[in-house]
Amino acid sequence: xxxxxxxxxxxxxxxxxxxxxxxxxxxxxxxxxxxxxxxxxxxxxxxxxxxxxxxxxxxxxxxxxxxxxxxxxxxxxxxxxxxxxxxxxxxxxxxxxxxxxxxxxxxxxxxxxxxxxxxxxxxxxxxxxxxxxxxxxxxxxxxxxxxxxxxxxxxxxxxx
Length: 160
Hints:
There is one protein chain. By secondary structure, the chain is mainly α. The chain folds into 2 domains: 63 residues, no CATH class; 86 residues, Winged helix-like DNA-binding domain superfamily/Winged helix DNA-binding domain (Arc Repressor Mutant, subunit A), CATH 1.10.10.10. The protein is built from 6 helices and 4 strands. A two-stranded antiparallel sheet has the order 1-2. The chain has a two-stranded parallel sheet with strand order 3-4. A hairpin with a 5-residue loop joins strand 1 and strand 2. The two termini are 31 Å apart.
């Protein structure tokens, strides 16, 4: 994983190690005119520790991470609504558009979802097609399926 945090420790971007170019593109789009530089951290951040715990089965740990994003007001509204989808559950793009009070903005919700710079923590992988099929995920549909399976496994294990 690639994680970008700012001086205050807020998570600004998160992507898969093989998607660095995509992550940098999203960062440039969100922060036009700002030079964003990546460098290796001297010590492990709270975000990195939380992601390790998430992959170890503590799926709720990501809910506590502070995230700061650029983007438009609409994108930030969609991204905030994504964080309200519980781990292991899914919501359709149409339902997400309705949830934010913009039922006719299904395509715009899809575009905002695709522009999400903080994958997993802002859980765009929890959004699916109206027909309940997996659709669109920047990390690939196999990863999307894995993330959903991972969350369901640990969610269900915690409710026993």
